[in-house]
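Researcher: Next entry in the queue.
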Amino acid sequence: MFYEQFEGMTDEQIVELAQKPDGKALEYLLNKYKNFVRTKARSYFLIGADHEDIVQEGMIGLYKAIRDFKPEKLSSFRAFAELCVTRQIITAIKTATRQKHIPLNSYVSLNKPIYDEESDRTLLDVISEDVPSDPEAMLIDRENLSLIEGRIGAMLSDLEKQVLSLYMEGKSYVEIGEEMGRHVKSVDNALQRIKRKLLKYLEKK
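Model: Structure for this entry, 205 residues:
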């Protein structure tokens, strides 16, 4: 495999080759970071969207990171790639909501610390600013699912919590149904109830 030629090189050196451009170097980086992008995409739960759509947006962000990386300004390509991937995903989501005629100010970042003003932990990295008029535009940070469940635990049944957790792992309705021994329609109904309950929760924020 031609990838062997990049062994012993840093990502920053390989990026420099990819920018020349070197197609093999570009392909190597896209493949190397593919799982990184998938993991990052899984951090975002967009009800009504295909997980692969979010992954594709992340890959576009990765390509832009390779194209725009400047080693004299940034020492770590990985950190820059993470920034570009995240930015691309969030931009795509905002664009999608605009196309659905949702007001531009319907998106907000809940960067308010959970515990105290000194804490870096936020309730949600990104969630709908106020409440989007379209429930499909609801974005939830998967990393903080446990915090969400803790705060709205009284609103979700055990079944709904399990369905939401499995859905946020990227499982399909069929896979969730098989794992829980439920019909696909039952899974769909549970997710619809979860949407309504989460929107009620957001309206109180």
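Model: The first strand starts at residue 44 and ends at 46.
Researcher: Noted, moving on.
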